């Protein structure tokens, strides 16, 4: 197996992450000088949703 290949059993399943339009824009690289936490908060939401999906899939 290729060392760069990662096997994710649920890799093709769809997940939904609820976020504001501003958070989504921040993930695309838009900068919000008045609220620099937007990107960090959006990333946390995505990571949390992935963690929830992957942990619950194993139970």
From TrEMBL:
Protein name: Uncharacterized protein
Species per Swiss-Prot/TrEMBL record: Paenibacillus planticolens
């Amino acid at each position: 197996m290729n060392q760069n290949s990662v096997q994710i059993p649920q890799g093709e399943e769809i997940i939904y992450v609820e976020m504001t339009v501003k958070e989504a824009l921040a993930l695309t690289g838009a900068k919000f000088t008045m609220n620099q936490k937007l990107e960090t908060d959006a990333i946390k939401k995505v990571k949390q949703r992935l963690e929830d999906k992957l942990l619950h899939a194993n139970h």
